Amino acid sequence: MLLFHLGRNASCLTPNKENARCIPVKSCIVIIHAIQTGESNAIKFAQQSQCGYDSEPLVCCGTKGVPEVQKKEHHILENRAHSVIGRNSPCTTPNRENGRCIA
């Protein structure tokens, strides 16, 4: 539940107590990665990060996500150190549907 509304680029505090900025969710890699895991604690973290709305959802975007998400992401990156996912490569959406990578 959003109890207050901050403007775009306003200073904010993440659920991890990190000083950050309130930016569009699509611009926040930390929140995008959290949502993509589909894990309930990561989704909750993303919801708790919401800080406003300015024609699109805004989130308090820091550099640290949910600790469990960071550990898994690091492990995945270690295992895929030599593989590169390119534009239009197959990938999975946050809803666990097959799709194509766009970035």
From TrEMBL:
It comes from the Eukaryota. This is Clip domain-containing protein. GO terms for molecular function: serine-type peptidase activity. Keywords: Disulfide bond, Hydrolase, Protease, Serine protease, Signal. Pfam families: CLIP. InterPro entries: CLIP, CLIP_sf. Residues 11-61 form the Clip domain. GO terms for biological process: proteolysis. The lineage of its organism: Eukaryota, Metazoa, Ecdysozoa, Arthropoda, Hexapoda. Coiled coil: none annotated.
